[in-house]
Amino acid sequence: MVFVTDHGPAFPRAKSTLYDAGTGIALIIRPPTRRAMAPRVYDELFSGVDLVPTLLDLLRLEVPADVEGVSHAPALLAPDTENAAVRDHVYTAKTYHDSFDPIRAIRTKEYSYIENYAPRPLLDLPWDIQESPAGMAVAPLVKAPRPQRELYDLRADPTETNNLLAGDDSTQGVAAIAADLAVRLHDWRQRTADVIPSDFAGSRIAERYTETYLRIHRKTPTGRSAIAADRGIDEHCS
């Protein structure tokens, strides 16, 4: 039995972001009873693509060669919970929500490195957040341009509020960490043939997706936030 949640609660800096609150999910696995596994908390990096190979491995089924991800079954079955981590980093990505907002990120246990590929405000608030009390409260505070790169020390700054690459205060050590993570992220994008549309093309795609969603669900946006003009979607209501 597997219990898993969707990404990101509907709050600013959570849903539709690549911060921890936007990418971290709940995951509970009850393995087959014949495996005689004791209950435990697995506090290691786990990517969504790891779920299928892990489940197949726990069921003693062969993992096809073309299945992405790595199995965490050996670590879960090991009696010693201090075994070496299966992963030392995970990748996350966002291209669309109800707007075109291309972002890619790499996360280790120590750092989160994010690249933003289109000029956007600090937060691109989705429709279900922008008119909520939380969305309206932060709207005046998130109009500033979003930086192209972000780096957070997750040990000292677990809520990811202090961008170490902001301003001229970044040290040589910080620059080296960012460079290493940037290379890893670039290599992953090359391996996966990750292509990001132009801002014009991506915005038109997002507009069509959103129009289709509204038509199918017979919904009309009741208003737009003050930052709507910067989101890559044309105004849909007056």
UniProtKB/TrEMBL annotation:
Entry keyword Ligase: no
InterPro entries: Alkaline_phosphatase_core_sf (IPR017850), SGSH_C (IPR032506)
Keywords: Hydrolase, Metal-binding
Molecular function (Gene Ontology), one example: sulfuric ester hydrolase activity
Any one Gene Ontology cellular component term annotated for this protein: cytoplasm
Manganese listed as a keyword: no
Annotated ranges, domain N-sulphoglucosamine sulphohydrolase C-terminal: 15-136
Organism whose genome encodes this protein: Mycobacterium tuberculosis
Protein name: Sulfatase
PANTHER family the record matches: IDURONATE 2-SULFATASE (PTHR45953:SF1)
